[in-house]
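Review session, final week

We close the course with one last complete record, chosen because it touches almost every idea we covered. It is DNA-3-methyladenine glycosylase II, a protein from Lampropedia hyalina DSM 16112 with 234 residues. Go through it on your own first, then we will talk.
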Amino acid sequence: MGNGGPGMNSSSTDGTPSEATEPATESMAPPYWDEACRHLMRKDRILRRIIPEHPGLFLQSRGDAFGTLARSIVGQQISTSAAQTVWKRFIALPGNASPSPASIQELPADAMRAAGLSGRKVEYLQSLCTHFEDGSLHVQEWAAWPDEAIIKELIAVRGIGRWTAEMFLMFHLLRPNVLPLDDAGLIQGISRNYFSGEPVSRIDAREVAQAWKPWRSVATWYIWRSLAPQPQNY
């Protein structure tokens, strides 16, 4: 299962390529984390049980906007283990140890496909590079933008949908109140923890998450932890 938890997009069996992180230290936690945990434990009896089971772990950012989005594209529609394998092959391509718009645009499409990328994903990555290089993504301004404005700009990039944009908000910008209703891991976790495994609709999930505001990202992260205790990172 993928992303920072076992988050899974709505059209795949799990999330994006990610590697297990080192145990976090207190100084690495988002500044709101402790406050969010206290709120969630007061408001939600399920999270009151889950949160203490995962001490010293929290949502973390790699600090690389382009890399986070590239990883999300590479991992679409495939399992996390397969995504990790493809990503390792991808960054092993000559000149691509630290993928950037410039390095990826230098790669032959055949070499990218040989690393395990589909032709469509090659096109998506090339589109992402173009958007970063031509300035159509206002990366330096995003910190001041509201969530929905960032999502709107990101989904204009071919190959990036709302789920990927929401994962970016959570894992790169560390936005605290994202509720990724298209994430199958979140839906599975809500079903297991709140509905005894019964099917859960988006409406059901949204109602459960009402108590999580304004820390829905944190609650989602802990719901993922209830399914896969070891966090992984974009």
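Two points worth writing down before the exam:
Residues 65-171 form a domain with the Endonuclease III; domain 1 fold (CATH 1.10.340.30).
Confidence is low (pLDDT under 50) at residues 1-26.
Good luck, everyone.
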